[in-house]
Amino acid sequence: MKLNLILILFIFSVLLFSCKNKIVEVAEPETEFIEITKAQFNAENMEFGEPSLSSFSDWVHFTGTVIPSVNGQAQISLQTQGIITRINCKPGQFIAKGATLFEVSGNEFIDMQKDFAESVALHQRLKSEYERQKELNDENIGTKKELILAESLFNGEKAKLNALKIKLEKLGLDVAKIEQGTFYLSYSIAAPIKGYVTKVAATIGQYIEPQQTIAEIIDNDSFQLLLSVFEKDINKVKVGQVVDFYLSGNKNEKYPAKLISTGKIINSNTKSIDCFAEIQNFENIQLVSNQFVEGEIIVASDSVLSIPESAVLKSENESYVLSFEKESDELFYLSKLKITTGRKNNGLVELTEIPDSKKILLKGVYNIQIE
Predict the structure, then answer these.
(1) How many other β-carbons are positioned within 10 Å of the β-carbon of residue 328?
(2) DSSP of 48-65, one letter per residue?
(3) Least confident of 62-66, 130-134, 166-170
(4) CA–CA separation, 247 vs 245, rounded Å?
(5) How many CB atoms lie within 10 A of CB 213?
(6) In 3D, which of 279, 332, 370 has the Cα closest to residue 72?
(7) Up-side HSE of residue 68: CA atoms within 13 Å toward CB?
(8) To the nearest 5 percent, what fractions of the chain are helix, strand and coil?
């Protein structure tokens, strides 16, 4: 009997111990919060904040080159054939408008002056003859035929004289001196625009024909952008839109421009359309002709709710932020909050839905692991 009592007491003790263990497990559920110590929060410069309104843009990407405007590039050639006797420029040199680039001489140049001087003398003689025949005709002494011949010769020589005079004046010569028989041994080629000499294709003593290009000048202040925009995007592009461009793939340093012209023909090889943009704040940029550029044309802009990209955590192809829930003396308690994101712009990401909690961790998220 005593043995049975001991056995009953042993079984009762085992059951009682099992029940106590079961009650302890239920009383201690795992927490659903992510805990961050306040010491860690301060040491890693973490920061809470709220989504804010930011300007987001829709854009069209382009590639392009830097080119001079139509009035910012000059090719230098001779107005009449001749021999280069002096060169006053070199590649890379800055030249002011009107500065002397070359000195030119040659037999053709001398002959032009001689022809002009002879034409002046002949013109005066034919003019006198024409006036004499006109007076005779008025007095019914001369014949009509002689008057017409004198007038014809006079007008023909007058046209020749004026043509020679224009040619010599375009060479920068004083025709009054040539009329008196004082000839020039050479003439100067002046720079038609200011800018940098990019090419010199002549040597002293070289005989040059009028169609030959002997130098080229580019005015850097006239630079503009030649943009290539794909055919599918051309309907979005309009004159006056803002352009952001960058050089050598450096997206961190962008420069402003404004679209001034859109092309009217599609390149059959690239399926793109040429557009032109005027560079803004030109003095702050170092550019060279034919330099490659890349960037975006801003085709639309609006204000949207956004947060920094660095505040977004990724898990299983979903996006989350850490939402503030509560705090204690030593800890911050955070929870995962699923968000839906849209466009990205300058380190910000668009929130397409407003999160339930507006106080989220904006800085220092990169050191926190979520499952």
Answers:
(1) 9
(2) EE--EEEEEEEEEEEEEE
(3) 130-134
(4) 7
(5) 13
(6) 279
(7) 19
(8) 30, 40, 30
| The predicted structure's pLDDT at residue 370 | 64
Sequence-distant (≥ 6) Cβ neighbours of residue 139 within 8 angstroms: none
Residue whose entry in the numeric block shows the structure tokens 């795992």: 30
Does pLDDT of 8 surpass 70?
no
Classify residue 78 by its DSSP letter.
-
Asked if 313 and 368 count as a contact pair (C-beta separation under 8 A), the reply is yes
**Top-confidence residue, 211 or 353:** 211
The residues, ordered by sequence, that sit 6+ positions from 199 with a Cβ below 8 Å of its Cβ are 91, 213, 215, 216
Residue 151 has pLDDT above 60, yes or no: yes
At 371, the pLDDT band (50, 70, 90 cuts) reads low
Task: Render 160-217 in DSSP notation, one character per residue.
Answer: HHHHHHHHHHHTT--HHHHHTT---S-EEEEPSS-EEEEEE---TT-EE-TT---EEE
Distance, in Å, from the CA atom of 290 to the CA atom of 280, rounded to the nearest integer, reads 18
Mean pLDDT of 240-269: 90
All domains in the chain, ordered by first residue? 34-54+304-367 (2.40.420.20), 59-70+219-301 (2.40.30.170), 76-216 (2.40.50.100)
Output the DSSP codes for 273-330: EEEEEEESSGGG----TT-EEEEEEEEEEEEEEEEEGGG-EEETTEEEEEEEEEE-SS
Q: Mean pLDDT, the chain, as a whole number?
A: 86
Local structure of residue 222 (DSSP, 8 states): G
Listed residue (75, 1, 60, 42) closest to 242, CA to CA: 60
